[in-house]
């Protein structure tokens, strides 16, 4: 097994075709195919399924691909340290629920390591996709929350995927509303007071279960529900419709604007916000730096 073979496999997986991969790698299609066959034979696995319609990554190939990315990252670190070459293009991916502190930490990471070449990904996505991304080693780190309602289901899924949850901080649930909302002057807001207003939440696709929701009390029946896919849309609707959502109370005015405020919500259980990693994975230098940045922004849930 060589580093070159690992690069070949990753490129084929990312492009989805031998033709496109061979063009990017400046290698003939037969040579690329043979190199992958030799690697599969040596490792005694099938990395790609071949059909008349093309190729696709096999289940064991998904796991192999995750480890291959880590090997290449470690090789880049060695080159950076001993050859002074900058280690080539740096790659890193994190998957997260919609948290401003996750974005801030990502910005810090790029400022520290973003040199001439890098390929970083920040996936603000659905809860189940976060779990799958880390399980398949597409992302080193996933950020989500647990509470009394969802922890049994989420922990069971994490265990089945061989994932671990690491606590960052404990947050008191807050209602996010516009500064002009009729309840904006309240010191604490109750569920009863919110009943007449539109409830905004992030949709969870085919896994749109209460247990995968980003919102703290989504098991409650709401009269007016609006589901969205992105943060900007949610905040625009909060302002335009006097809507509300429920989250950690950690808010960044630079990212979310000064028109959104957080007011404590009465009588709801705490949110245990943390990150997940794969038990068999190795946290890279970039991953550790990202976690350090997260700690800076989430200590006590303050300074955001």
CATH class of the domain at 170-271: Alpha Beta
The span between the termini is 46 Å
Number of beta-strand segments: 12
Helical percent range? Answer: 40-55%
Please give the structural blueprint.
Layout: H1 3-15, H2 18-25, H3 29-43, E1 48-51, E2 54-57, H4 59-82, E3 90-96, H5 100-113, E4 118-124, H6 127-135, E5 141-146, H7 151-160, E6 163-171, E7 174-178, H8 191-194, E8 199-202, E9 225-228, H9 231-241, E10 245-247, H10 253-256, E11 260-264, E12 271-278, H11 285-298
Parallel strand pairs: 3-4, 3-5, 8-9
Antiparallel strand pairs: 1-2, 5-12, 6-12, 7-10, 7-11
What is the compact description of this entry?
Keywords: DNA-binding, Transcription, Transcription regulation. 41% of the residues lie in helices and 22% in strands. With 304 residues, it is of the alpha/beta class.
Structure overview:
InterPro entries: LysR_HTH_N (IPR000847), LysR_subst-bd (IPR005119), WH-like_DNA-bd_sf (IPR036388), WH_DNA-bd_sf (IPR036390). It comes from Variimorphobacter saccharofermentans. Residues 1-58 form the HTH lysR-type domain. It holds the Pfam family HTH_1. It is a single chain. With 304 residues, the chain is an alpha/beta fold. Among the domains are: 1-85, Arc Repressor Mutant, subunit A; 170-271, 3-Layer(aba) Sandwich (D-Maltodextrin-Binding Protein, domain 2). It has helices at residues 3-15, 18-25, 29-43, 59-82, 100-113, 127-135, 151-160, 191-194, 231-241, 253-256, 285-298; strands at 48-51, 54-57, 90-96, 118-124, 141-146, 163-171, 174-178, 199-202, 225-228, 245-247, 260-264, 271-278. The strands form 4 sheets. It has a 5-stranded mixed beta sheet, with helices on both faces. Strands 10-7-11 form a 3-stranded antiparallel beta sheet. A two-stranded antiparallel sheet has the order 1-2. α5 (100-113) links the parallel β3 and β4. α1 packs across α2 and α1 (3-15) packs across α4. The termini are far apart. Residues 300-304 have low confidence and may be disordered.
